[in-house]
Each structure stands twice: as C-alpha cells, then as structure tokens.
Amino acid sequence: MLTDVQLQQIMPRLAAAKLQLYLPHLNQALQTYGVDTMQRTAAFIAQLAHESGEFRWMEEIWGPTDAQRRYDPPGTLAARLGNTEPGDGKRFKGRGPIQITGRFNYAKYGTLLGVDLVAQPELAATPEFAFATAGLYWQSNGLNELADADDFVKITRRINGGTNGLADRQKYHALALGVLATGFVASPAVRGAAKRKVSVATEPLLRGQESIRRIRASAPAVAKKPAAKARQKR
Hints:
234 residues; Lysozyme; globular; 12 helices; single chain; mainly alpha
C-alpha cells in the first residue's frame, strides 16, 4: 500500500490533484491483485511510472499518425490487435497506465473485470478500470512471481516485448525501493477474493506501436541493391 507522500516521492512530476484522484484506485489494484510486498509494489509502480509518464497519459494521443492508421483493418497489425471494423483503431486506442490497445484486449480484460469495455472503451481510461486492467494484467501474467525473483528485466520484456526504456524503468525501480524501504505497509488481504489462475504470457501485451516494431523486426531481410555511384558535383 502506498501513501500520498511515497507516491509523490516516486513520481515527483505527478500533479497533486491527479495524485489524490488516482491513489485510492492504485491501492485498490495493489490489494486486489496480490501486489502486496515491497518488491512487488516497487516493480509494479516503476513499470507504470515509465509507461504512463508518471500518470500523465491515461489515453493515447490520437493523430492519427501513419503508424496509428495501421491499427485499422485490413492489415497484419489490425489482425493482431483484434480490430475488425473501420474506426476500431481510434475506438480501441491505448488507454490506462499500461496502455491496453485493440478490440481483443478490451474484450479480454473487460470480460475478466465484468464490464463491457468493447461497448464503452472510454471506461478503460477512468481511474477505476485503468488501474484494474493494469493490476489484472500484472497478476495474471506471473509478474508478481518475477518481482519475487527480482527479475526486473524479464518483467520489462513481458510488458514491452523488449527492453525499450529499461534505464528509465530501472531508475524508477531503484527510487521506489528506496522510498518503500523506510515505510512500507503491506496491503490487507482481500477477504473472499478468489485468486485468478496465473496464465503466463507467451507474448507481451499487444499494443499498437510496439506491435509495429515487432512486425518490422520479424520481417525477412530484403537484399539491398548496390548503391549507385554518387554524381560528381558540378
């Protein structure tokens, strides 16, 4: 469980009004999804701090950019995200501190949380469901156990698909560990709460921009033509 002072120390750029708005929902997610030790809490808050820019971004800024246009069908990326209808790209853009993206993820996490996020995708950016989806993803993909094993790099790979932003994530992790070391209070157990079956992810969380990078990285190399000789300057 985090206090307002601790959260402000870990995220010094977080506005006071947002801190007061988000903290109860953040602590509820910690309590509900078993993020109940110092190691788990520090890893969780560090990853979210990096992903959301210290909770500044709960919703993907929409252009659309050329990359974002690929969220809409037809296409490989749209298929990976489960987007089947025109406009699904913007409708199911990244929301929440862990930026769930795509019709597939909205349906999956909405079903698990008992709310129709497909019909009301904007709910994924509200504090109640934004932190719930982050906590549910964290628990159901074995990230508590990775935090117990102090495998922060593997946590990053499971969330990100690589190690993008690792230095920044590690900075927040070290800061969170230092802050919590002097005053961590474990969240009380949720009475009667059924533990969800842990289903370790075979792929990281599908998100738009990161899926684009993975598709490009896995594409077969194209032989380059010999470079043409440079023309002499006149």
